[in-house]
Design goal:
Elements (H helix, E strand, L loop, with lengths): L4 H14 L3 E2 L13 H4 L1 E9 L7 E11 L2 E10 L2 E11 L7 E5 L7 E8 L4 E10 L3 E10 L6 H13 L8 E2 L10
Antiparallel strand pairs: 1-9, 2-3, 2-9, 2-10, 3-4, 4-5, 5-6, 6-7, 7-8, 8-9
The structure holds 2-acetamido-2-deoxy-beta-D-glucopyranose.
């Protein structure tokens, strides 16, 4: 999808402000081989992410459901300032030859953003990466460590960070998402 720079820039500005842009095009990480979208469905908790946000929500989770063989619905939620907030998006496999490279859009006016599953065992953890280039001059990226439970062993988190790093993705600024006190009434 080609969109004019003038149209895309206002959408990117908030992202660029939240994140240090990196010079040059996006890295080309390897993704999960033979990715099975169906096994990826269900609930994932956000354990850590890049970049840090100014307004930090806690108890962030996403619930993925298959809508067709190659498209999904995603409902993400967080608790922010004592309120439960939900946002719904749609995702698609953009290229059937690359099933781990999804595109997700949270609004019909926004283009699909890359949502690449770099690695997952489907039952414990998943590493997700999203990178957007601006005129091939620089790129802004997002990375997430997801888990089927609200916590992951430190060793798993360390391994995850190493996988990102090996793929030329800088995760020094990755922050942990608070997953405590999530079951209390708001
Ligand atoms: C996820 O979404 C599906 C379909 O809307 C729903 O049936 C299911 O209960 C949800 N699961 C969680 C954990 O929210």
């Amino acid at each position: 999808m080609k969109l004019s720079f003038a149209l895309v820039l206002p959408l990117l500005l908030p992202l660029i402000r939240a994140q240090v842009p990196h010079w040059g095009p996006c890295p080309e990480p390897s993704v999960q081989a033979a990715f099975d979208l169906k096994q990826f469905m269900g609930r994932w908790y956000e354990i850590a992410k890049l970049p840090a946000q100014f307004e930090k929500g806690r108890c962030i989770e996403s619930n993925f459901t298959l809508t067709t063989e190659n498209s999904i619905r995603v409902v993400s939620s967080e608790i922010l300032q004592g309120e439960l907030r939900k946002i719904e998006g749609i995702g698609v496999t953009e290229d059937l030859k690359n099933p781990a490279k999804l595109g997700i859009s949270y609004s019909y006016v926004l283009p699909y953003s890359p949502y690449w599953i770099l690695a997952t065992d489907y039952v414990n953890s998943a590493l997700v990466y999203s990178c957007t280039e601006v005129l091939r001059l620089f790129h802004v990226d997002f990375a997430w460590i997801l888990s089927r439970t609200r916590t992951l062993p430190d060793a798993t988190i360390e391994d995850a960070k190493q996988i990102f790093t090996k793929n030329n993705i800088e995760v020094i600024r990755m922050v942990h998402t608070k997953q405590q006190g999530c079951d209390k009434t708001l």
